[in-house]
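Researcher: Please generate the 3D structure of the following complex. Treat every line as part of one assembly.
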Amino acid sequence: NAGVMQNPRHLVRRRGQEARLRCSPMKGHSHVYWYRQLPEEGLKFMVYLQKENIIDESGMPKERFSAEFPKEGPSILRIQQVVRGDSAAYFCASSRQGEAFFGQGTRLTVV
Amino acid sequence: GEDVEQSLFLSVREGDSSVINCTYTDSSSTYLYWYKQEPGAGLQLLTYIFSNMDMKQDQRLTVLLNKKDKHLSLRIADTQTGDSAIYFCAESRWGDDKIIFGKGTRLHILP
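Model: Done. Output below.
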C-alpha cells in the first residue's frame, strides 16, 4: 500500500503563471486535506475534500486558489497567477477514521 | 476557538529524555497527535491518543494527556541524534476531521 503521493516534489513558477499540485491519497482513503507550510512556520489548514465535494475550505485564500478531488484521479490544488508570497511547501494528507497520513509535499518556488 | 501552542525550541543531551509540551484550547478535541518532520521531508505520524486516554506508550515514546488542563506532552526516552527534527502537536474533533497544528518544536540534540 503506497503512501500519499504528491507530485511534483519541487515546482518553480514565474510570477503570473499557474501552479498545479497533485495528490493521490492512500488506497481506501476518501478524505484529502491540503496544508501550506511557510518557512519556519507550522502547517496551516487550507481545504478538506471528499470525492467530488469540498467539505471545508475555510483556510483557502478567496482568490486565485482552488481545489478539487474528482471521482477519478488525484486531488488537484491550483494556484492561478502565482506571486512570490505563494512560495511554500504544500502538503497533502489523506485520512480514514481519524488517522491522517501525509505526503512528502510539493515545494513551490515563485521567481 | 482552535489553537495549539508549543514552545519553538528544545535542546537535549544525547541519551537524556526529551519532553515536548503542547497546550490546546478546544475542549471538544477528540484526537491528539504528534508528528515528526525531518529536514526537507513530509510529516510522519509518530503517535496519537484519544481524548478519553491519559497515557500511551510506544517503545521510547510516552504521550501524557491532561484533559483538565488541555495539556499534551511527548516524552522521548534515551534521545538519539536521529531524533533531531521538528515535532508538531495537532488536534482534531470527531465529525470535523480538520487537523489543527501547532507551530512545531525544533528538537536539537547536544553531543
